[in-house]
Specification:
The complex is a heterodimer of chains A (about 325) and B (about 300). By secondary structure, chain A is an alpha/beta fold. Helices cover about 40% and strands about 25% of the residues of chain A. Classes of the chains: A alpha/beta (about 325), B mainly alpha (about 300).
Chain lengths: ~325, ~300
């Protein structure tokens, strides 16, 4: 019996939403019929352009906003404004977090520890450890209002970890950070992902590439893709090569037409001087590329560069958005 | 052992409430508005005492010290303090930081409300109590007055209750409108003609002006006198009058004429204010205070942040 219960507990996703919908004032659909499952102990990237509904989704999970329809659960418990038990398991880092500027970091973290009902003997050592971990030990005597953006983000990270929650919801954690602070944050997410479920809402795809094992792509309030990073990249496996060319636009268009006439190859012009070559399943990639290169050699065009797989996530993401746009009414 | 564990559980349960209360008190105390208010209230009180030192007896002088809290100018400060915690974009962003933690909205709202009430009453008492002590104990070149301890305590209590109501009203309007400036403007437009509004409902007794005018009489009231009065029939009369007032209030609101015609209380006849009733005033301000806090909590509970 215990084993069954334990297994069920283990299998329960960290986050589950069913037909989750949020409409603001009967005017703006922020989240549209979203069904989502975030596996436990994963680093989940919530991707989407600005205004896609990522932040609203996180706020619905926290109970800061009420869903217009549908439901959301965290570790099997329903989310809502007064679900204290759910929030005790969540550490939230908002975009550009705002802090009470008159406090010092220790005072602020102590306040948050009290809000999480942590006893003093747990609170104090944890605050000290967190300040050391985020590199703010040297700034403990400064008021928060004197902090830079990077320091505020570090403090926000420490704040989200005070209660040692099992689920972290971080909204744009690398926004406005310099390269070293960004590297620190990404390394930390990777480290935390070993023991916790981390949801990172972002539109910086290179970050997602480095840290996430699962992704969800949102567009205009809808979840248009969920799955593992491999699944997402696999979607792009046919879009293998982008060839940068120099020459007349008409010649590039003609080349695209010739390449499309080849077996198992689809090609089209992108951004005026780039040729995107998609290779069908079963067709040899090297053979197909060789055929296209021969066509270029025979034309008046010169090859400037070949890109392959370097921006797989970005291409897959853009492709998902384009497909979603193209579906029009069927969406 | 058991009681220690119970106390500890209660302490843990109340920890977020106490933490928010302490944090808000500290933030409020560090605000310029509160410090300026404290200084200005102290100076105004000193000026009033100095200017009327040899002119007024104890009761009218103390009543004049209480007047600024009931009518002008401190009403404005109290309302602004009440409005600010749950409205405005920055306040909401800070509230986000707290409400994304394991804290219920009710806990947050009650803690921020309590902090404002505690602060307003503290500033009021810190300024007024020493001034009253000075007026009552010093030898002044005026005829001796019959101000009583009971009278002073009840007068302070009544003004404290009105201030608590004002904070709660500001709190409710701030929660409803979400824009501090708009909320303050609305409250000013509601509170300044309050005597007129109350007279429509035959509730002039509760208007700040009436309370202010009744203070001198109340300050001379003795505990024994109040006790004897209550033993005879005061409470029954109070309740009867309060019921009539409420009935009249709702009949005016609904447009249906009340069965018993509301008579003007004796309070206003002869300008003696002998009919000032602590019970009615306590109910008249206490119940609306409770209602505003409950409404603010409900409103805050249902709204999106």
């Amino acid at each position: 019996m215990w084993l069954i219960v334990g297994e069920e507990y283990r299998m329960e996703p960290a986050i589950r939403t069913e037909h989750l919908t949020k409409i603001y004032g009967q005017q703006l659909i922020a989240v549209n019929d979203m069904n989502l499952e975030v596996p436990r102990d994963s680093v989940f990237g919530l991707l989407g352009p600005n205004g896609a509904g990522k932040t609203t989704t996180l706020r619905l999970l926290l109970g800061l906003q009420r869903p217009t329809a549908g439901r959301a659960e965290v570790f099997g418990k329903p989310c809502g404004p007064n679900t204290v038990g759910v929030r005790s398991q969540i550490g939230y880092l908002p975009t550009n977090p705002k802090f009470p500027g008159n406090l010092r970091p220790i005072e602020y973290l102590d306040l948050l520890g009290k809000l999480s009902r942590l006893p003093r003997q747990v609170r104090k050592p944890r605050i000290s450890a967190l300040l050391r971990a985020v590199g703010l030990l040297g700034a403990t005597d400064q008021r928060i209002q004197t902090f830079s953006t990077g320091m505020c983000t570090r403090l926000g990270i420490a704040a989200s970890l005070v209660a040692d929650p099992a689920l972290l919801l971080w909204d744009e954690p690398t926004a406005g950070l310099d390269p070293s602070a960004r590297r620190f944050t990404l390394d930390l997410i990777r480290e935390l992902g070993k023991t916790k479920t981390v949801v990172v809402a972002t539109h910086i795809l290179s970050d997602t590439d480095q840290i996430c094992d699962h992704v969800g792509v949102m567009h205009e309030g809808r979840m248009i893709f969920t799955g593992s990073m491999q699944d997402m990249k696999r979607r792009l496996s046919r879009d293998d090569f982008t060839l940068e060319l120099q020459g007349a636009a008409e010649d590039i268009k003609a080349l695209a037409q010739q390449a499309t006439n080849l077996e198992g190859i689809d090609a089209w012009v992108r951004a005026g001087r780039a040729l995107l070559v998609r290779i069908a399943d079963g067709r040899s990639r090297s053979g197909a590329l060789g055929d296209v290169l021969k066509l270029i050699d025979a034309s008046n065009l010169s090859l400037q560069a070949i890109h392959s797989g370097q921006n797989a996530t970005e291409n897959a993401y853009l492709q998902l958005l384009q497909e979603d746009e193209a579906h029009g009414f069927h969406r | 052992m058991g009681s220690t564990a119970k106390t500890s559980r209660l302490g843990t349960r109340m920890m977020p409430y106490v933490a928010i209360l302490q944090h808000d008190l500290r933030t409020l105390w560090s605000s310029r508005l509160v410090r300026l208010w404290l200084v200005a209230a102290g100076l105004l009180t000193l000026m009033l005492v100095g200017a009327n030192w040899s002119q007024f007896q104890d009761a009218p002088l103390i009543a004049s010290l209480l007047f600024p809290y009931l009518v002008f100018p401190w009403f404005f400060v109290v309302v602004v303090l009440g409005v600010s915690p749950v409205s405005g974009s920055r306040a909401e962003a800070l509230a986000d930081g707290i409400l994304s933690r394991p804290v219920s909205r009710c806990e947050y709202l009650l803690a921020t409300w309590s902090a404002r009430v505690v602060l307003v009453l503290s500033v009021y008492l810190v300024v007024i109590v020493p001034a009253i002590a000075l007026v009552a104990l010093a030898k002044r070149p005026v005829p001796k007055d019959t101000v009583t301890i009971y009278g002073i305590v009840t007068a302070l209590g009544v003004v404290g209750l009105v201030l608590t109501f004002l904070v709660s009203l500001g709190f409710l309007v701030g929660t409803l409108l979400r824009k501090p400036l708009l909320a303050v403007v609305v409250l000013i437009f509601v509170w300044y003609p309050i005597s007129l509004i109350l007279s429509v409902f035959s509730l002039e007794e509760f208007s700040p002006i009436s309370l202010s005018r009744a203070m001198s009489t109340q300050l001379r009231q003795s505990w024994l006198q109040a006790d004897v009065d209550s033993k005879i029939s005061a409470n029954a009369q109070d309740m009867d009058a309060f019921t009539r007032q409420m009935s009249n209030f709702f009949s005016v609101l609904s447009g249906v004429p009340s069965k018993a015609k509301a008579s003007k209380p004796d309070f206003f006849e002869g300008e003696k204010f002998d009919d000032f009733s602590l019970v009615r005033v306590t109910l008249g301000y206490g119940l609306p205070t409770l209602v505003t806090v409950i409404l603010a909590t409900l409103c805050f509970y249902w709204r999106d942040l």
